Amino acid sequence: MKPAKKTQDSKQNVLQLIQSRVEAIKQAILEKKHPELAIPLRNLSNVEYSSQGFFEIKDKVKIRRLTAATAKTFAQTLRMIALSKQLLNQVDIATKREVYYVSKNWGDVRFNEQPESDAVMDDIEAMFRVNREQLGFIPEEDGAAIVGDLKVIDKNPLTGEEEVIDCKKMGSGGWNIPNSVERLQFEPGKVDIILAIETSSMYQRLAYHRWWKKSKALLASLRGVPSRATRRFLRRLNEEHGIPVVVFTDGDPYGWLNIYRTLKVGSGNAAHINKYFCVPKARFIGITAKDIIEYELPTHPLKEQDFKRIDDGLKNDPFVKHYKEWQQELKQLKKLKKRAEQQALASKGLNYVMSNYLPEKLSDEKKWLP
Amino acid sequence: MDAQNQKVLGEKALELASKQRVISVAEFFEKNRHLLGFDNPRRALLTVVKEAVDNALDACEEAGILPEIIVEIHQLAEDRYRVIVEDNGPGIVKQQIPHIFARLLYGSKFHKLSQSRGQQGIGISAAVLYAQLTTGKATKITSKIANDKAHFYELMIDTAHNKPLITAESAVEWSKQHGTRIEMDIQASYMKGLQSVDEYLKQTAIVNPHATIIYLNPKQEQFIFQRVVEELPKPPKEIKPHILGVELGALMKMLQHSSQRTLKSFLTENFSRLGSNTAIEICKEAKIDYNVNPKTLTRDDCERILKAVKHVKIKAPPTDCLSPITAEQLEKGLRKEIDAEFFTAVSRQPSVYRGNPFIVEVAVAYGGNQPSDKQARLLRFANRVPLLYQQGACALTKAVTSVNWKSYGLQQPSGSLPVGPLTIAVHIASVWVPFVSESKDAIASYPEIIQEVRLALQEVGRRLALYIRKKHRVKEELKKRSYIEKYIPHIAESIGEILELQPEQVQVLKQDLFEILEKTRKPVEELKQENPEFDEEFAKIGIEEPSKGEDHEAS
User: Fold this and answer.
1) Is A295 considered catalytic here?
2) How sure is the predictor about B87, in pLDDT bands with cuts at 50, 70 and 90?
3) By residue range, what is the domain housing residue B402?
4) Distance, CA of A70 to chain centre
5) Phi, psi (5° rounding) for residue A122?
6) Given this model, what pLDDT does residue B535 score?
7) Which pLDDT belongs to residue A6?
8) Hey, is the C-beta of A66 within 8 angstroms of any chain B C-beta?
9) B247 or B451, higher pLDDT
10) What CATH number was assigned to the domain covering residues A3-138?
11) What is the mean pLDDT of residues A1-20?
12) Is residue B16 part of a domain?
């Protein structure tokens, strides 16, 4: 299927969804009934860890019934749907921030802060069960930085001209994954594995030493919780080119649950689109609770919010509930009352991570976590 | 200790003894004028006016005369003022004039228990002493009783002996039928504001609606606080002390001066609500023969009696001796002063602290043009006298801060007055108001008093909460209605845009939407907000004015 055709289909599909949903609202009004919007609930209570390896949304919905109290949000939702339709018809896009500014023309229903408009956008996305890019909205967040033996073929959207990016020639820096990765094509070179790294300081150490050459790994700097585009990018390399993805984070509940878990199975908030925006086959190489002990890493005490996140994960996270290994990890960390950063490896020598830690970890799959 | 040392110490004691002598009350106050409210020139002016006006009101009420009081303050020099207070009271018998005005602790109210403004017989003579100390001038008194000539005196106080010093006297003609006029020159300073004479007289007018006060301030502005009630308050009754409020020393003194033959009759005749059965019971409990001559009782006997009364059930003192302002009058007073939306007032049933009956009244004014981000304003009154100083030390304030105003819909930083558009007036009437000091600014913290004030505040608080909640509901309802007005057109227009509808179709959607949303709404409750009794000119009195530019004066 050609990308252009796919886009065209998706556009018609979304326009139809909009038409039928709004038509239903109109009918309700003409029948003198309170119109309603049904929006799927987007949190961990409404997802399950599916057999295909990602968080799949269940069928809990919140009904937004039009009353005096909900009138403003109701109007905003409809205004934004109208904007989406306009964007799709004009083959244009708007970033989340731009949408927020467009609302300034809406008079009394304008948004006061961007989080308000982002929330309405998320609602619409979930309501139609589509990705916001399909509605014409794009995030402004950057994708991850990439370095390694990979050629990316992009297309100039204005001229249609092909542009080839050689990710080997990024010096000590990296190539930034764009907002939308669907139009990209890949030509991997000598790449055996993709190493997704939580912090940019760890990424920079490896990139500076051109460690990707020696290890035949493609390096990706996640910079915290990976964006949708990053997740999609890694997913495509993993699925279309069969390159395994491993994740390297700090040894703490944030690194494990917020970063790794979101990358692997998606999030509660984006549950309606997790199917495409996660890497179910990703594996975790460190830092584990066991590493903290075995490598005798310098640590910091766990904070109150860390304990909370551990308890919440054990209690509510379907992913944790599915894997004994992760339950054990979390429990062990709770017992240690400690966390360790990736950079803690520097206590053994600045380049210890390249000379010892990563080679030891990468060479032994038994040490990886699901 | 050796002999030499002993001798030195003995000599020292003799030396000290040569310096030890009686201090007259007048001399004591000469050195401790702050105790009487003369600590600074501004406050001194207020205290002088206050003492004279309190006396004038007391005199009129005791004689059953509707008070008409003239107050004038004239500036003589930068820090020198002449204060004149004139009343239409019954006048003072000639021989008594020097004693009343020029002798400290001389008065008619200390030895009886009856609700009145003055208590100790210090106030006005302290003012005379203050005048004498700061300007060296005698105080001029003119007083006339009905069918007699007026008598004029110029008085000073012989501080060493606490006796009047008459510097001039004569019989004079006075057009008034009866009344008293006092004129004194004092060192003072005049300013407007919350602790000013203007404010004091205004508040006095609020709680004394039966009095007319004609006031000329040093700026030559005249205010007439017109009488609004043509009836005197119910005259307070004099009562005997209650035995539960008597201290050991006082009891011993009373026994010494008693004329009764037996202890039983001493008890029944000197104390309120104490019948012969109760007297016998007390004596039994104290293990003293009730037929014994009261003069023969020892200190130990007295102590046993006071211990015994705690175990015997004694009737509470009568409470009909009190003359409250009444909730209605107190609220009326606030209505005149404050342009608020909601008023309410409570008069409690009489209660008793240490054998003294008292009654608490509270009124509040909420909303209107009062600032909502500031602490509530607290007006304190005791026996119809405004208390302007020492708010923090007063039991009435403590009672207000101890109430949880948050549960009535107001903000309240912990341990403080509530914050909000609120004025609280608290009045306590008692046969003996327990002030913390002679300057009579703050009321002592008896738990019974604090409790009564709290109960009154809680009652007005509950009423206030009902209003605040109602106001909130109405505001919410109006807000929701405005939401409908505001947002419905957007909903209809967006639908029109998405479905590419004609303008007429959008109009139909709008109409339908209004219908759907309006039909589920209840009618808006009514909030009465007018206060026709508000008197803007009155409210302005006492308020500090911003300093005016010169050109302002010229125009």
Assistant:
1) no
2) very high
3) 327-467
4) 30
5) -60, -40
6) 80
7) 53
8) yes
9) B451
10) 1.10.10.10
11) 71
12) no
